[in-house]
Amino acid sequence: MSAHKLFRLALGSILVSLIVLGLKVLAYWLTGSVALYSDALESVINVVTAITAAAALWFSHQPADHNHPYGHGKAEYLSAVLVGVLITLAAISIARYAYYGFLDPKPMNAPFEGLAVNLAATVINVVWAFVLIRTGRRERSLALEADGKHIFTDVITSVGVFFGLVGAVVFDLPILDPIFAALVALNIVWMGVMLMRQSVGGLMDEAVASDTLAEIKAIISKEAEGAIEAHDIRTRQAGRNIFVEFHLVVPGTMSVSDAHDICDRIERAVEDGVEGTAVTIHVEPDNKAKHQGIVVI
């Protein structure tokens, strides 16, 4: 998928999150429920997340320049850290309202009308979260995947709140309203911590997933005919970009031109096989062989 299409998807996420926020604010206005207030507040974070994701996608797809020779892919990780912080602040606000709800629990106004509106917003979120997570994973876009996961967490929250408030109405237990608001706050904190942990891993040059590394190694082994071995393979990921470095051992009598041809062949194959990959190869003579890594002959 092109960068332009990904950016349009991020803009679409802003529109969807605004529609969902409007529905949830309406649900809170109809009922006065503390739990539905917390659900609506989480949707405010959805809007911020969507805007941040769109900005990060735009910036991360800017071409490499003099000051950023490796590109701008890590902008997506920075956006995820920001969203994690905002999520934590939202949880604190929700916990505050839940506390006052415990002190003075009140029955809801028009509960079924409000819950019906909230349920409609949840259905929209289910569909959109699926689209964002699937696209984010396929395109290796942390910003889109983080946005989708946040929305999906919102879905889980909304479903829990829905059934909890139905129970509060049916059994006439207003105290369930602030209880579920507090549970929403705990759920949001957990989501924020996990999101920041994932983004920090990217900022710390975390290696690619094991299945991706295995795919890269298989391509190197297949395309390195004429070389002896490839060792000290290192990878790091920055947004959609993957950087691969390794040492390629060739016969000491091989010409520079022939060694260069092998490197070109490997680079093209890896970059074609794993989208967004940039390969750097250090060529060494056979006396530098370590007899480990990828043995070619």
TrEMBL record:
Record's keyword annotation contains Magnesium: no
GO BP: intracellular zinc ion homeostasis
Segments forming domain Cation efflux protein cytoplasmic: 210-285
Subcellular compartments: Cell membrane
Cleaved signal peptide residues: none
UniProt keyword list: Cell membrane, Membrane, Transmembrane, Transmembrane helix, Transport
Molecular functions per Gene Ontology: cadmium ion transmembrane transporter activity; ferrous iron transmembrane transporter activity; zinc efflux antiporter activity
Domain Cation efflux protein transmembrane intervals: 13-204
Topology relative to the membrane: Multi-pass membrane protein
Transmembrane segments: 7-31, 43-59, 80-100, 112-131, 151-173, 179-196
Any one of the GO CC terms: plasma membrane
InterPro entries (UniProt xref): Cation_efflux, Cation_efflux_CTD, Cation_efflux_CTD_sf, Cation_efflux_TM, Cation_efflux_TMD_sf, CDF_Transporter
Gene3D superfamilies: Cation efflux protein transmembrane domain (1.20.1510.10), Cation efflux protein, cytoplasmic domain (3.30.70.1350)
Protein origin, superkingdom: Bacteria
Family statement drawn from the similarity comment of this UniProt entry: Belongs to the cation diffusion facilitator (CDF) transporter (TC 2.A.4) family.
Name of this protein: Protein p34
Organism this protein belongs to: Terrihabitans soli
